[in-house]
Design a protein that fits this description.
With about 70 residues, the protein is an alpha+beta fold. Helix content is about 35%, strand content about 25%. The chain is built from three helices and three strands. Strands 1-3-2 form a three-stranded antiparallel beta sheet. A hairpin with a 4-residue loop joins strand 2 and strand 3 (about 60-65).
Length: about 70
């Protein structure tokens, strides 16, 4: 079980085709701040039908996209 499971479930339930979440929004949803482990855990999101398309450190956002 990943510390980001709450985030993955939220994305599957509420996500559109493509959308962004800020690092703060991710922290509020997941209950933990985004950190380096996110890079390793993001592959888990594929099981929920989504992928991480882009991580912007400048804007502090993550772009998610539904897998077709």
């Amino acid at each position: 079980m990943s510390k980001y499971n709450l985030l993955w479930k939220h994305i599957k339930k509420n996500g559109g085709q493509s959308f962004k979440l800020s690092f703060d929004e991710i922290r509020n949803i997941a209950g933990v701040a985004i950190d380096h482990s996110f890079l390793n855990c993001k592959k888990e999101l594929l099981e929920y039908g989504y992928e991480v398309k882009k991580i912007s450190l400048k804007d502090k956002t993550v772009l998610f996209q539904k897998i077709y």
